[in-house]
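Technical note accompanying the year-one report. For the benefit of new consortium partners, we illustrate the data format agreed upon in the data management plan: each record pairs a sequence with a structure-token string. No post-processing was applied to the example shown here.
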Amino acid sequence: MTRNEFNAFCSGLAHATHVVQWGNSDVWKVGGKVFAICGWSEGADAFTFKASDLAFEVLREMPGIRPAPYLASRGLKWLQHFEPPGLSNDELKNHIVASYDMVIAGLTKKKRAELGL
């Protein structure tokens, strides 16, 4: 997946908003909370997403995937696809949607109602 494909995919998720921060990273949020990030890892695109406990345990051992720098070091279950082989485009999209869904589930009832979710 390229950065442009990542941004196009994330922009299609309901109520997703985009900001550029942290050294030119594309940061995607829903309800003001981050669900996906595309930044650089040694000159290549790196895709970061929130993971379930099970996904974190299984995927962090796969080649091309690691606990997300900074986020995982703070005890958060975030992964980064940073080099091949990693995940296929479809698998990465599925994990981005799962991250989006987890972030929505963590929003207050009031915030979800404001967004119509």
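Partners are asked to follow this layout when depositing records. Residues 24 and 55 are 27 Å apart (CA to CA).
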